[in-house]
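Journal club side-thread
Mid-discussion, someone asked how the predicted structure for our own chain would compare to the paper's figures. Pasting it here so we can look after the session.
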Amino acid sequence: MRPIRPALAAASLAVALALTATACESGGDPKADAKPTKSDAQEGGSGADEAQLPDNLDDIADRLKEHGIDVDKWKDGEWKNWDKDKWLREAKDFANPVIEGLWDADRMKSAKSPSQTISSKAAASNEGVTDPEPRPVRAEPERTPYYKYAAPVGKIFFDTPEGTAVCSGTVVKDPRNPGKSNLVWTAGHCVHAGQKGGWYRNIVFTPAYNHKGLSARALESAEPQDRAPYGQFWADWISTSGEWINGTTAASPEGGSYEYDYAVLHVKPERGTKSLEETVGAALPVDFSSPSPKSVDAMGAWGYPQAPPYDGALMHKCIDRPGRLSLAPDAPTMYRIGCTMTAGSSGGGWFRETGNGELALVSNTSIGPAGSNGWLAGPQLGDGAKRVFDTMSRKYGSQ
């Protein structure tokens, strides 16, 4: 039997995401298109040390008070204090109180991507493990409306000491809460500064952001439901890898452990009580099998590139046959594909078709080359990533 040609595999992958985005399984019956309505609009830690995680998500005020922070003052602007003593760093200290109305059109417009690049010299090291650099694959705009073709994909907005920032994320299935997942997959560097800092703040997920595909200028005067058709979902807990927090395999000037650059958000709506998956009508499973690049005909990356020549308004995608990238001899290799998406697509999901034809998230955008935008690399999701995910699902999935 002939192997699937990359062009055919790419087309199949794009179609599979569209099918997943328009139907969500619940009790075996596919739902109708999950179209946004006006009413719909209206885990800190590594997971490796589960004992550090609180038993519930209702003690945000208490966690802040332990560090001398009053939650009311926090909402009134104290969150802007990034002094070392106020910047919560440890896994157990994550806190993200909802500040209703904070992310308005102006703050969304001003958000810039945290730059995550690595030098060509570092990327070319460890010959024999790193495959030749892929040819660039031009990113294509996703079809609109996004709720029909890529509903699980969205933008993540957050605050850093340098200002507002943006990444991408994906709604993923929670096996312990079928049909009612509140979990979002993204990159570790989109939620935590790593060894150089702590947790970012005011982290929200906006699924199917700008679902009509309006231009950046048109978005300035667009209705709120055009920017956020399903509303905004605040992270009330986040889990990322201990390697990312501590930078234990640093291979870059920033000290990032990009081979472990992944995170899972547990979210809740800014308004209402419906779960994220019920609201959006779609979610994707996560594949933790770490398939060899040689065994995969195509991987697709989706996200919202913001750095030039893009402006962050539109969702894009790239599909390519993956290769290997090694940054450190004692760390896992990363997946790498050709793609012209830039910063802002960080955290966006990478998808592949599994053996049973199901589309699954297999990685997320982490880094690209310094000084150009010809490829992207993402971590393999193995046992460590699965522990982070399972801890989140088990402890917080039903909350």
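Post-session note: The chain has a mean pLDDT of 84.
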